[in-house]
Design brief:
Chain A: This is Aspartyl/glutamyl-tRNA(Asn/Gln) amidotransferase subunit B. The complex is a heterodimer of chains A (about 475) and B (about 475). In chain A, helix 7 (about 325-340) packs across helix 9 (about 370-385), helix 12 (about 420-435) crosses helix 14 and helix 13 packs antiparallel against helix 14. With about 475 residues, chain A is of the alpha+beta class. Chain A has helices at about 55-65, 165-185, 225-240, 290-295, 300-315, 315-325, 325-340, 345-360, 370-385, 390-400, 405-410, 420-435, 435-445, 450-460, 465-479, and strands at about 5-15, 70, 75, 80, 90-95, 100-110, 115-125, 130-135, 145, 155-160, 195-205, 215-220, 250-255, 260-265, 275, 285. Chain A folds into 3 domains: about 5-290, no CATH class; about 300-415, no CATH class; about 420-480, Arc Repressor Mutant, subunit A (Orthogonal Bundle). In chain A, the strands form 4 sheets. Chain A has a 9-stranded mixed β-sheet. In chain A, strands 5-4-15 form a 3-stranded antiparallel β-sheet, with no helix packed on it. Chain A has a two-stranded antiparallel ribbon with strand order 3-16. Chain B has about 475 residues and is an alpha/beta fold. Chain B has a single domain (about 5-260, about 395-480), classed as Alpha-Beta Complex (Amidase signature (AS) enzymes). Chain B has helices at about 10-15, 20-40, 50-65, 105-115, 155-165, 180-185, 220-230, 275-290, 305-320, 340-350, 355-365, 370-395, 420-425, 430-435, 460-475, and strands at about 45, 75-80, 115-120, 170-175, 190, 210-215, 260-265, 295, 400, 440-445, 450-455. In chain B, helix 2 packs antiparallel against helix 3 (about 50-65), helix 5 runs parallel beside helix 6 and helix 7 runs antiparallel to helix 15 (about 460-475). Chain B is globular. Chain B starts with 7 loop residues before the first helix and ends in an 11-residue tail after the last helix. The chains are: A alpha+beta (about 475), B alpha/beta (about 475). At the A-B interface, loops of A face helix 9 and helix 10 of B. The complex binds zinc ion. Zinc ion (ZN) binds near residues 21, 38, 39, 42 and 151 of chain A. The site of zinc ion has 8 residues of chain A, from loops.
Chain lengths: ~475, ~475
């Protein structure tokens, strides 16, 4: 059977978190009453003119530099002409042949291998508004238009077709998001649409040089959707080819519920955007010194930070990779270290219990009720012997639910560890008396039996007995 | 002379001396409108109430003994593609027949700030596309010199209003000659300033890289005051030049000794009416007598200006006019089946033929496969045309020629002959492609129809044009001629 590989290129739209829109002074705040974040300019009313927000250029340059791009000293804006009710001017101001940044790359790790994915270019553009359909798009009696998002500043990051699998696609976008977040130019919140991606995908027999016919899957707004859609589309295309069919170049959408991609329109109906230079905007001419200045002001980026975690904190590569995947996660980590310098222990808690509970609750670390200071205090309580590691998990869950300080929870629930030898010794004696069989087994050399007896002591003390002490006393008594 | 026949600077002198009040001037102009508007039809919308209020404000200032600026209380007409907050702005199109903008064009705001009195919004070719004001969705405008004839276009209403005394000054827009050509046909002074000298904010665009707002006045002195009022950088228009403009009245000097004037031979070639040519030659003789050195020169790429202009202007127009889709303002056709059908019907019913023709031309030339052959090539030729001017203006202080190859033609005469119609702008179009300033001023009559003399200057050197125009005016009588109505 033929082995296939995918050829994937991604177009990632990132909304920049400037205070005002790209060509007017309207706020970029998320939400708001429909059409309240608008003015004659972003509504495209006749005679109004765009004036470029300098901050957008700065942010685009910052992102470009963080993604190892060359920044264009001269770039310009073009009009991309097409009709859609959410597009007030029926053209989108974008950049076509002279974008702000080109020829960058990011490095991803998949299955222990590091791979470089090329970035073809990054361009700036304005976002469109949004349509609110009354029911299904095909049968809606009418649709409403909300232009709040119209004119929001975007950068579009277009990759080279260097990606070979859905896993790589996901890793690429995750890395991209991490880097952009670190630069501070965007929140990259997929759920709010501030990071969206389109996937261009084709398949070919492994070893073949030329590309197959590609399809485009539009508007994927979660990592899961991205990976699943790419995997589905890859399989679909392979099946078509295997059965002797041909791939049609077309645009498809991802149906999350059914887990399939669906055809939207074929190439025949594809747009001719009739790009031409926007005569209302002057070219963007950048000073090399200014670009250098921005370069120097770039913060530590994920890869640098990951290396530092390995070197400075002695963390395993794996831990360092996970912790630096989002800026929030690594900022949290570092803040916690500031309170209590136990990197590996903190990392264990974050990658273990914390990730588990965040996943369960479907939230991310920004919504976590446990503050770094509190996590540090919890670990201190364990180190001081106030609570056992086992109790600590109970306390952690409670902290996660209520946001209370660990000491408060320990006190309220009476979870302080019993380290009183006398108190533990009497429980040990009770357990020995109640379990003659296990005592016999232990004396017969079955080391395992001691574990059971420890467990019984812990059970009797509701987990509060100091486990080291229990072990020590048990062995002494059974001598 | 009647009040409505006077210039702004003359009326200003009378206001200051309390020989007349702003209210009286306004009243005189509206009476004139009542008297002749049926014949001329310069306006789409009249703003009597606003005018009376504004005039009263000026009179209040005068009564309080306050000093007033040179244009305060002067009746003003605005081409109906200049946005006026709270006042209908139609572009003479069905598409915008109900459009009341919530903002005011910067140039208009500057005139409001200078306390001019808004009389109304003038008729024009639909979306400024045309050379005769015959493509208006509302009605024809007639040339005050001969009501059988067109006033020129597309600022025909603004030119005829000033010529007929229905306003003292006005603003038009000039994309390929739309201020200068109607000014020439109507025997008034019209200027297209350097591209970027006046903010385009609030001027409904036809072709953004060519459009420019400019004044139409009765004489050169009024022109200088109007330029003082409207020129300057606007943070709302990034293509507006960030330059300090001079006081243009300083150029109102009766002296052109030693100035070098070039006459491009292409502007007096075949196709230019012989009698128009005669008027231009007489003007040349006059200027020579007054001390200028006039010499023939050449703008070799002039022949390519027309096709270049129509490629670029229509390409930009096709994109600029895409926003009229019936979705959120303006005309929306009834009975659409779905959103695409609504777009189609609204645009089919909302636009007139000339506009549709140009949108289609522009869409075609920007299409994949044609872009390089048409749009891109036109951009390159535009550069050559610019270079022609640069070279000529290195040698000369300014260039001179006719504004239009003929005098005003008869209504309906060219409407079905687009090429002949387009040729009316042959002398003005190259100037827009080069982004240069140019002025048209009356320099004679042919069969009792005015002839326009065009002066073309270096970028941002409106001053020299004013100086030559002023000198010509001071030594001739053409600017005193008024049509009989
Ligand atoms: Zn806005």
């Amino acid at each position: 059977m033929t082995q296939y590989e995918a050829v994937i290129g991604l177009e990632v739209h990132v909304e920049l978190k400037t205070n005002t829109k790209i060509f007017c002074n309207c706020t970029t705040a998320f939400g708001g009453e429909p059409n309240h974040h608008t003015c004659p300019v972003c509504l495209g009313l006749p005679g109004t003119l765009p004036v470029l927000n300098k901050k957008v250029v700065e942010y685009a340059v910052r992102a470009g530099l963080a993604l190892n791009c060359e920044i264009a000293g001269f770039s310009k804006f073009d009009r991309k002409n097409y009709y859609y009710p959410d597009l007030p001017k029926n053209y989108q101001v974008s950049q076509f042949d002279l974008p702000i940044a080109r020829r960058g790359y990011v490095e991803i790790e998949v299955a222990g291998q590091t791979k470089r994915i090329g970035i073809h270019h990054i361009h700036m553009e304005e976002d469109a508004g949004k349509l609110v359909h009354q029911g299904n798009i095909m049968t809606t009696p009418y649709s409403l238009v909300d232009y709040n998002r119209g004119g929001m500043p975007l950068i579009e990051i277009v990759s080279e077709p260097d990606i070979r699998s859905p896993e790589e696609a996901r890793a690429y976008v995750e890395k991209l998001r991490a880097i952009i977040q670190y630069t501070g130019v965007s929140d990259c919140r997929m759920e709010e649409g501030s990071l969206r991606c389109d996937v261009n995908i084709s398949v070919r027999p492994k070893g073949q040089q030329e590309f197959g016919t590609k399809t485009e899957i539009k508007n994927l707004n979660s990592f899961r959707a991205l990976q699943r859609a790419a995997a589905y589309e890859m399989e679909r295309q392979i099946k078509v080819l295997e059965s002797g069919g041909k791939i049609i170049q077309e645009t498809r959408t991802w149906d999350e519920d059914k887990g399939i991609t669906v055809s939207m329109r074929s190439k025949e109906e594809a747009h001719d955007y009739r790009y031409f230079p926007d005569p209302d905007l002057v070219p963007v001419v950048l000073d090399q010194q200014w670009i250098e200045f921005i370069k120097d002001s770039l913060p530590e980026l994920p890869d640098q930070r990951r290396r530092r975690y390995v070197e400075q904190y002695g963390l395993p590569e794996y831990d360092a990779g996970i912790l630096t995947l989002t800026k929030e996660m690594s900022d949290y980590f570092e803040e916690t270290i500031g309170y209590y310098d136990k990197p590996k222990v903190i990392s264990n808690w974050m990658m273990g219990e914390m990730s588990r509970l965040l996943n369960l609750s479907g939230t991310d670390i920004t919504a976590c009720k446990i503050k770094p200071r509190q996590l540090a205090e919890l670990i201190k309580l364990i180190d001081q012997g106030t609570i056992s590691g086992k109790i600590a998990k109970v306390v952690f869950e409670e902290m996660f639910a209520s946001g209370k300080d660990p000491a408060t929870i320990v006190q309220e629930k009476g979870l302080v560890q019993i380290s009183d030898e006398g108190a533990i010794a009497s429980v040990v004696e009770e357990v020995i008396a109640a379990n003659p069989k296990s005592v016999e087994d232990y004396k017969a050399g079955k080391e395992k039996a001691i574990g059971f007896l420890v467990g019984q002591v812990m059970k009797a003390t509701k987990g509060k007995a100091n486990p080291d002490m229990v072990n020590k006393l048990l062995r002494e008594k059974l001598q | 002379m009647e009040l409505y026949q006077l210039t702004a600077h003359r009326l200003h002198a009378m206001l200051v001396k309390k020989e007349v009040s702003a209210a009286e001037i306004t009243k005189a102009v509206f009476q004139r409108i009542d008297q002749v508007e049926d014949k001329v039809k310069s306006y789409i919308t009249l703003t009597r109430e606003q005018a009376e209020t504004q005039a009263a404000e000026v009179d209040k200032k005068l009564a309080a003994g306050e000093a007033i600026g040179p244009l305060e209380g002067i009746p003003l007409a605005l081409k109906d593609n200049l946005c006026t907050e709270g006042i209908l702005t139609t572009c003479a199109s069905k598409m915008l027949e109900n459009f009341v903008p919530p903002y005011t064009a910067t140039a208009v705001q500057k005139l409001y700030d200078a306390n001019l009195v808004l009389v109304g919004k003038t008729n024009m070719d639909e979306f400024a596309m045309g050379s005769s004001t015959e493509t208006s969705n509302f009605h024809l405008t007639h040339n005050p010199w001969d009501i059988e004839r067109v006033p020129g276009g597309s600022s025909g209403g603004s030119a005829s209003a000033v010529a007929a005394g229905q306003a003292i000054v006005s603003l038009g827009t000039d994309t390929g000659g739309s201020i200068r050509q109607p000014a020439a046909y109507c025997g008034v002074v019209g200027m297209k300033p350097t591209y970027g000298a006046v903010s385009r904010y609030g001027a409904v665009p036809f072709a953004s890289s060519l459009d420019q707002i400019g004044p139409i006045t009765k004489d050169v002195t009024d022109m200088a005051y109007m330029l003082n009022a409207i020129c300057g950088h606007d943070p709302l228009d990034s293509t507006s030049a960030n330059l300090q403009h001079p006081d243009f009245t300083k150029y109102l000097v009766n002296d052109i000794k030693g100035l070098k004037i070039g006459v491009p031979k292409e502007y007096l070639a075949e196709g230019i009416d012989a009698q128009v040519k005669n008027c231009i030659k007489e003007a040349i003789t006059k200027l020579t007598e007054l001390g200028a050195h006039v010499e023939e020169t050449s703008l070799p790429h002039t022949d390519y200006a027309m096709p270049t202009y129509y490629l670029l202007a229509t390409a930009e127009a096709s994109s600029n006019l895409a926003r009229y889709d019936g979705v959120s303002y303006g005309f929306r056709a009834a009975d659409a089946e779905d959103v695409v059908d609504m777009f189609k019907r609204s645009r089919s019913q909302g636009f007139g033929d000339e506009v549709k023709l140009r949108i289609m031309l522009g869409t075609y030339s920007l299409s994949a496969g044609y872009y390089d052959a048409y749009y891109l090539k036109a951009l390159k030729v535009r550069t050559l045309i610019k270079q022609d001017f640069d070279q000529a203006l290195e040698k000369f202080d300014l260039l001179l020629g006719p504004t239009s190859p003929s005098t005003a033609f008869k209504i309906g005469e060219l409407i079905h002959d687009p090429i002949q119609m387009y040729l009316q702008d042959i002398c003005t179009i190259p100037v827009n492609l080069a982004g240069l300033p140019a002025i048209s001023l009356p320099c004679g009559l042919v069969n009792n129809l005015p002839v326009g003399l065009q002066l073309i200057g270096k970028a941002f050197d409106e001053g020299t044009l004013l100086r030559v125009a002023y000198t010509f005016e001071q030594n001739t009588e053409y600017h005193r001629l008024r049509p009989e109505l």
